[in-house]
Amino acid sequence: MARKHINKPIESESEQEEYDQSEQEYDESEEEEFDENEQSESENEEEEDESEIEDDENDRAAKIAKMKRDLAHVSFEQLAEINNKMGVNDTLEKRKVSKAQILKDLEGAVSQLKKKDKKLKKSDQEMKRESKHRPMEMSSKRAVTRLRTVVPLQAEKRRDPRFDKLSGHFNQDLFEKSYGFLEEYRKSEIDMLKERIKKERDPETAENLKMMLTKMVSSEKTKEDRKRKQELIRQRKKQEAELVKQGKKPYFLKRSEKRKLELMDRYQRLGDKAVDRILEKRRKKNSSKDKKKLPFKRRSAAE
């Protein structure tokens, strides 16, 4: 505050004393105000300094925490190199290294680690094997399945010997001649079954044996029919081959013509009487079918 000068004439000594006393009190009050202002300014400066120090400490703590997180994946070799630079050598003698150098080394180690992580992320093209006999390099981020092909193998080619050329050409005549003894075994088994059925007293076992006998007899009959059909076709082929040698154009039978040949052969083997009986049954069957197709006779009102 600016001091005001009072230009007033002093009349007596008492007034002079009062004036000096008032001036002294005024100076003391000014000094007290000045001291208070200085004290408040110093306190504000101290508070600002403390806040700046706290901010610096917080930033440093955050940087150290981040550095610790980054250093958690740093290898032991890089940590040993940094430890040596910080002041511990082979003879355990302390060196004087600045904090800036330490921070620089740590940042360099973290950057190298990040580069290595980038290199480790290989593409599918890079993960291909140099040799097919080596195991496949798999990613550790995916869950491993229990059933997996570590080394891919060639798929097994299953082959049917009936249609494979390696098994050779099937010759029906040769097969029948080679395994003709099996037919004799089957015939002997049929005879044994017939004798056993005659001697068997238990009705259930006898019934089971009869069913087995009918199956075996029907299978033998179908085999004989098949052989007979093959024989007819073979004879027809021989006749056609002789006609072709004479100059006739080759002719191949249709399925319907093959069926006609089989029926003719069957009727010839049965005889005239059996054929008449079969034809009579066929007529009755056809007539019953025709009767079913006819409409019913309507009843009149008188009936």
Molecular structure report:
The structure is a single chain. The protein is an all-alpha fold. Among the domains are: 171-250; 253-290. The chain contains eight helices and no strands. Mean pLDDT is 76; it is low at 1-11 and 88-94. Component of the 90S pre-ribosome involved in the maturation of rRNAs. Required for early cleavages of the pre-RNAs in the 40S ribosomal subunit maturation pathway. InterPro entries: RRP36 (IPR009292). Residues 280-303 have a biased composition (Basic residues). Residues 12-58 have a biased composition (Acidic residues).
Quickly describe the structure:
Helix content is 66%, strand content 0%. With 303 residues, it is mainly alpha-helical.
Number of helices: 8
Given helix and strand content, the structural type is mainly alpha
The total of beta strands comes to 0
* Oligomeric state of this protein: single chain
Assign a percent range to the helix content: 55-70%
What is the first-to-last residue Cα distance?
150 Å
What fraction strand? under 5%
Helix-strand sequence? HHHHHHHH
Radius of gyration, in Å, reads: 60 Å
> What is the typical, i.e. mean, pLDDT?
76
Largest sheet: none
Q: Unreliable runs, pLDDT <50, ≥5 residues?
A: 1-11, 88-94
Shape: elongated
InterPro entries: RRP36 (IPR009292)
Protein name: rRNA biogenesis protein RRP36
Function: Component of the 90S pre-ribosome involved in the maturation of rRNAs. Required for early cleavages of the pre-RNAs in the 40S ribosomal subunit maturation pathway.
Family: Belongs to the RRP36 family.
